[in-house]
Amino acid sequence: MHGRSGPAARVLVVDDEPAVRRALGRELGAHFEVVMAEDAVTALATLARTEGLSAVVSDLMMPGLSGTELLAEVRRLRPECARVLVSGALERAGADVLAAGIADEVLSKPWRFGEVAEAVRRALAKSGRRP
Question: Which one, 32, 39, 83, 103, has least CB within 10 Å?
């Protein structure tokens, strides 16, 4: 159900709230292959062992490393990966995160259905990856 030929882009979803992680997984799973992690440390381990990741979608506020710290590390380790930051607290941070190149797209919670998939597609296009 990916609507195009070839394999779907593989997206890593990172959120410490199980319900939000499941909701993101459901929305993105209709368009992409989804891998999930419950925190930034798990996400970095997943990043290290998973080939072919095209994008990372991360919550901002998580215990331990924040989403901003995670995406900065993703940019360093896998610069080819598109990066999307999702949060309920982006008023100040959103512009800074975009300006610093830490994220390709920033999305506020609550998102409307379809918004996250579109943000991932835009981020993939910005990073030169096929959506």
Answer: 39
Question: What is the pTM (predicted TM-score) of this model?
Answer: 0.88
Q: Name residues whose C-beta falls within 8 Å of residue 96's C-beta, 6 or more positions apart in sequence.
A: none
Question: 71-83: per-residue pLDDT in tens?
Answer: 999 999 999 999 9
Helix or strand run (H / E) with residue 47: helix 40-49
What's the domain count of the chain? 1
Three-class SS state of 88? coil
Locate 30 and state its tokens: 């209709």
In a domain, residue 4? The reply is no
Within a domain: residue 72?
yes
Are 83 and 74 within 8 A, CB to CB?
yes
